[in-house]
User: What shape does this take?
Amino acid sequence: MHESNINTDNSNTSRIKFISKIYILSVVMEPLYYFILVPQHISGIGANFARILQFIVVASLFLKLFSAKRARILSSFSLLNKNFTYYFILAILAGFLGLYSGSYSFNIDFSTHVINNSIIADFILGHSFRPFLEYFIVLYYLVYFVVLASYMLTTKEAIDYFFKLFVIVLLVCLFVGFLDLLLQLLFKYEGFPRQFTDGRSVGFRFHGIAGEPRDAFSYLMLSLGIFALRDIWEDKKKLTLFWIILIITSAFLTESFSGILGIVFFGSLLVVYYLPFASSKMKLLLLCMYLLVALIIFINIFGNGPQVIGYYFYDEFLTVTLSIFYLFTNINK
Assistant: This one.
């Protein structure tokens, strides 16, 4: 694999290739689940606007590959790709081991979870085909979003364009999300739909154009990471306290129980792997942050009553627990 070096000289990268712009837009639009154009119960796999852009990129690259006199073949075991290759091989071996040991003998048919599936969706979501599709999905995500990025984001101009576009889309998401909450407060308004296709409202919960509230929570946490990465790239401090408070406030307004669990698990891992090596000042700061986050979580859960405690606890947390219990009991039989 050719290991590309990022050119930081703007004079040599005055223009970004069109295919690179489409690629960057497809990456930025990927986590925005509002733009689902074809529901999963029809196509079997959710088709959204980002997928169309990704298809354009992949098709263009294949045409360029076939028209080229000399094609450069990616090395699966290069320095950049070998860890992903090892992971994929281990995933395949784990699948065969599970199949051989009978771990997959119980029949879970995901096609029955959605009413009025199409014939295509029944086949794709069926237990006889979906596990094999998951391998392709993992491989696709690794190649498109990791490997291909080293070829598309090869100039400073392209990377700056990615950060600029990401910030613009995030601002649109925040604007739509808070406008939605304001309109629900002022008028008898059901709320902005979670997806373009179903028109289903999620009530007084922040989500913007990121889809469901739990998807919005993940997107907002991702934005904090992207902002921090931008500060490292530009060697500037643009992730100010204002942005942190705004994004975290939006995240808690999603009232996502799975997001709260994510914070709890992240905090636990931070204590185990980081706190023992931190300075006394940093330990005190982290302790204050933990207390503040714990207070916000307590208010967020108990302040919203049955919606968070009842629905999310029983529907998500207990479902996961019972699924794990069911898995182990069937393995031991």
In short: The mean pLDDT is 77. Strands lie at 36-38, 47-48. Residues 217 and 251 are 5 Å apart (CA to CA).
